[in-house]
Every structure is written in C-alpha cells, then in structure tokens.
Amino acid sequence: MKGWLLVGIGIWWLTGISAWARTYTDAEAHAAWTQLQRQPITEQTFRKTCDLIQDVGQTNLPLAYEWLAQYVSKVQKSGNRRWIHILLINWGKAKESLNHYDEAEPLFRQARQNARAIPLLYCHALTYTVQLYYDWGKPDSLAHYLTLGEQAARSANDRETLALLRDFRGASRIRSDQREAMRADFEEAIRLSADLPDKNALFMARHSLASYYLTNLQQQVMAFDSLLELAKDSSLSRNPRFYERTTVYFRSPRPTVLFKLAQLNLLLTDYENAGKFADMVYDELVRPNPKAPMVPYFNAEMAIIRVYQGQIKQASVFVDSSRRQFGGAEAQIPYSGYFLAAGLLAEQDGQLAKAADYYKQSLTKGLTSVSFSRIPLELHYVRALLRTGHYDKARQMLAPLTTAATTNQYSAIGLYYYQSLAELNKAQGNYVRYGQALDTYHAIRDSLTSLNQYRAVQQILARVRIRDKEQQIDRLNAENEARTRQLRRERLFYGAIITLAVLTIGLLVLYVRNRQIRARQREALQQSQLEQLEKQRHIDLMQGIIKAEENERLTIADQLHNEVNPLLAVVLLNVSSALETVAPDASTAPKLRKAQDVLTSINSTVRGISHRLTPQLIEQHGFRRAIEELAESVNMSGKVQLHTIVVGFDKALPLSFLSDLYRIVQELVHNVIRHAQATEATVEVIEHDRHVTILVEDNGVGITANTGGDGQGLQTIRAKVAMRHGQMDVQRKSDGGTLVVIDDLELPESSREANRPTQSVN
Question: Which residues contact 381 (CB under 8 A, 6 or more apart)?
Fold first, then answer.
C-alpha cells in the first residue's frame, strides 16, 4: 500500500496541471530567467521566479531542477526562512512523488533544519518527512518522525498537521495488521479535521479509512461514492502554486477517487470497467499535458490495464512510450510499475525468464505511487518462478502473502495466490494441499465470475431498456411527423378562411377600441382638470387660512409688543420707584419686591410670546440667525442638545416664505422636545437653486407605527409643505429616533430667477 492513497494523484508541483500554467519556448524561458536573476529578491520577484520554475517544469523537468538549485543558493543568502522553506519543501516533494526517495531525503533534512525556529513550518517539514519514509517503506524512520511530528503539532496547536500524521500512523499499521488501532487513528484524524475550513485533511482521513480499514469491496465502493461528493468542495478543487502551500494536500481529489474505483474493479477482475475508470483518470491528468514528467508513470500503468483487458498491442505501445519518456538505461528506470508492465508483456510472449527478471526488478524499485493494481508484486514474481521451475524460491515468496490472501480472499489477490499455491503443491507432489488450494481457487473464481456476470447482465439489461426506449421514441417521432404533416395541410386550408374572418373582426375591434380609447382619454383629461382645480382650490383655501393665521399672529404680536409691553414697563417702573421710597425694613417692601419680580417675569414671557408669534430676528438679522437663536433657547434648557446646519439664505427672500420655513422648523423642534424623549437633535435647512430641503432627526424613542395619524402640529406642517408643492416623509430610524425629511419646497418665483446662473454672451 502506498502513500498516494493519502496524498492523492498529481501531487507533483512541477508536473501538475494548473489553471495558471504558461508554456515557454527554451529561448523565452532563458530570457525570463536571466531578467529575474538581475532583480533583487522581493516577494513579487520570488513569486515570479517560482512561477517560471514551475511552468518550465511542465515540459523540461531537468532545467527546472537546475534553476531551482541555483535559486535555493541565492535565496539562502537573503536569510528569509519562509522563502527557503517553500523552495526546499517543493523540491523535495517533487523528487519524492517521482520515487526519487534518496534525492528527496537530504532536501527534507535541510527543510527541517531551516524551519526549526518556526513551529508551523517545522510541522510541515516533518509531515513531508513522514510521507517520504512511509512511501519509501522505512518503518523505523517513519515511526521516529511520526513521534516528532505529533509532538511538534501539539505544541503548535496545529490540528491539520496532527490529523495528517494520524492518517500516516493509521496507514502504517496495516503492515502489522493492527486493525483496531488503525481504525482509531483514522477516526481521530476525522475528528480533528471535521470542523476545519480546509477539507483537505478530512478528505484524506475518510479516504484512508475507506482504503485501508474497510475490507469489504462493496463497503469500499459506497465509501468512495460518498467521497466523490466531498471532492466537490472548493478547498479541494483548486490547484495552488507551490509558494501558496507547503503542507500535504490532495491536488486532484476526483481523479483520485476514480483511480480507486479502477483499482476496485481490478480486484473484482472486472477488467472492462477497470479500463473505463482508468481512461477517465488518464483523460483528466495526462492528456491535457502529454509532455509532463508524470506521463511515463501513467503510461506504464495503462499498459498494465491493457494487459488485463487482453489488449496486448496497445499495452506494448504504452510500455514503449513509457520507456522512451523515462530515457536512459532500462535498469535505471525508478518506477516499479514499468517493470511490472514489461514483465506481464514478456510473460504473454512466453519469455518466462525475462518476465521473472522484470518482476524481480520491480521489487527493488520501491512501491508504486500511482498503481492501478493492488495485487502484490510478489504474486507476479511467484507465477514466473513456478513456470521456470524455481519452486523453493516460489514457496519462500508465497509464505508472507498468506495473510493478505486470506484478508482479501474473494478478490484478485486471493484468486492469484491460491492459483499459484495450487500449482506449487502440484509441482511438489503434495496433491492433498493441491486439491484444497485448487478448490479454493475455483470457489473464488466462480464467486468473482458470478458477480461480474451479474453486473454484466445488469448492464446488458440497462442497454436493452435504453434501446427499447429509443425505438419507442423513434416510433412516436414518426407518428408525430405524420400527424404534423396532416395538420399542416388542414391548417393551410382553414387558415385562409380564418385569416379573412380574423382580419374583418380585427378591423372592427380596432375601430371600437380606438373609439373607447379616445373616450377614456377625454374622461381622464376632464378628471385631471377637475382634480387640478380641486387641488388649486384647496391650496388657495390653505393659503388663505395660513395668511389669516399669520396676520392674526402679527396683530397679536404687535399688540403685545406695542401695547402690553409698554404698560408692563410703566407698571414695573412705578413699582421700582415705590421700592426706592420705602424703607427696607417696612412691611410693604417684600410685597413690592415680589410684585417687581412677577412683573419682570411677565414682561419676559410676553416678549417671548411676541417673538414666537412673529420672529423679528428674521427681519433684523436674517433667517440663519433666527434658527440659531431657536437652537440657543432650546439648548439653555439642558434637556435636548440641538445642532443646526443652515446652508444658503444669503440673498433676500420674502418674509412670508421665511416665516413659513421658520414655523415648520419651530413646530418640528417642539415635537422633538414634547414627544421624542431625545437628548440630541439636528436641524438642517438647505437652500438649492429652485427649492429648499429641511431635515430634522433625533436620537429619541422614535415615532410609533400605529399612532393613529398625524397630530395637529404635523397636519399644519403638511399643509404648509403642500402649499409650497413640497414632499414630507416621517420615518423611524433603524438605530432609534425619528427622521423627518421635507424636500422640494419651492422658492418664490422671483428668488428662483435671481438664483438661476447667468449665461455669458460672446
């Protein structure tokens, strides 16, 4: 079992298919490299250089490695540990994913040394070190770095790394058949990663549980079906550039699951469906980038699939292509899958000794990282040994496989194991065990054949049902076409008659409709005129009422100011004179002083009433000062802090218009004081070219939605606003308080003409 099950297909940062990848010619690549090396190292130039190396690696991996080595030396001089970490990790995992384990080992060692002072980066380096020794098949080194990694992850509170390491620990237990401990590790990995926003570790944990712990093939199929849904998660589907990620991750989750389904079909000896899934994986990962360094690995695997399918010529083409792409001497090819494919072809040609040699070499190349076949390589070697007469060696190779064959008895593993065991016992004359092994072999073969036949029958039935449906659809289509032709002829005949009738009726309808439209237009025009007259009458009436009210206020104010105030002043003067002639200790002195205070208060009150009835400050100091004095009088109470903003009003406006504005503001402010329970309020009065806008807002309790209509004050304000052709909106603010907006209050015609910008004449 191999680490690709944990890290997924397409892990190679130099060979993976990226949405951002660019293809360079050699001249373009060298020119870009030279230009970047002349620039100082910044985050921007670092990323550009990483992109260049990664993109060049799509088609020229040796050149990418050469530049990477040069750039690592250059970056190390900068002392930036993060940049160094990115380069070393990705260089190491590129080597590891292509089975160059001995070259990856020193790179990960340097990465650990560089990242030791940075906990998170150190966890990443340890995780890739664990993956290296897991894939390389070195259990002692694996156990050592698993322990170190888990300690570092706990110290850094890095749950993702801890979940990944639990994955590797669980997967490593398969070699010692610690199934319950394995399950506990995988479930702990799932628990640790369940609520992480990045679903990478969760996908790996569920993938590992299905791959390693589940032994029932049907359960595995169900588990991988559910993984296809999780594979759609956006955190799994992207292909990051290698400077964006330095931890173990799935680059191609969907092809990985499809790959697993191809494996399961091979285990079921259903070679046709296995080939279909393998083709889907090949189409997604290889065909978009046929020059990528991973292609020879996949070509070798496709050769294995084609041999199982009996397509020997195609298998030979894939093997030859794989050998050419690897280059160099055949013995130096680092991939065991190639030697397995070559051995299978040699065995098909009857070259048994050559096949045995290929199988033997496959055992020395390490475990395959992208193998469709989960059949142990030793079983192929045993078969070749048996056919070349090396029975003792064959028995020695078979002995360690007993557990795997028993565990996976009703699969291709058990089938080939008991077939080889039967041949071995027969060759050595042990006919009792030969018969037992042969019976087991036939039972497994019959079971797999029945299962595959059942699946084949279901597929045939499905195709038959589809064919019947297609024939039924064809018949229905033919009948529909015949009916359509008949209907078309009938429609042509009746269509002419109906068209004439419709045209006649249509003309009549248009004539009647036109008369109705003109009648409705006349009625609408008359109604509009009546409404306009009624509206104008109402406005004239309101203007008369408001004008009469204003005249009455002016009359009362004049009487208070010109008659009552002078009389009060005379009385107050007499009382003051009387106080001067009365001795301080006289009994009448307190009464006179009390009368003086009362008269002073009455005088002040009468003056205030007079000013409120007619704001004389508008005439004396202008509208802006009148509003400011209103705010000052409110602020003196200490209960409400009133802020004012007055824009414009620098030019003369009719006093009646300004008085209306002042009355509106005054009434709105009094509403705030009486009803809002506010501590702060703001009044804005803004003069535009043709109209005036008033805004009043407070931080009080806000107006209630079901108040039962406006009060007398708001009704008066609305009447004044309507008279000036304005609009008024009262609303409760979302954060509390009330906002009143009065807009489009028309300026008097003379003022609008004065505010209109003049045009220069050349």
Answer: 356, 359, 360, 362, 363, 397
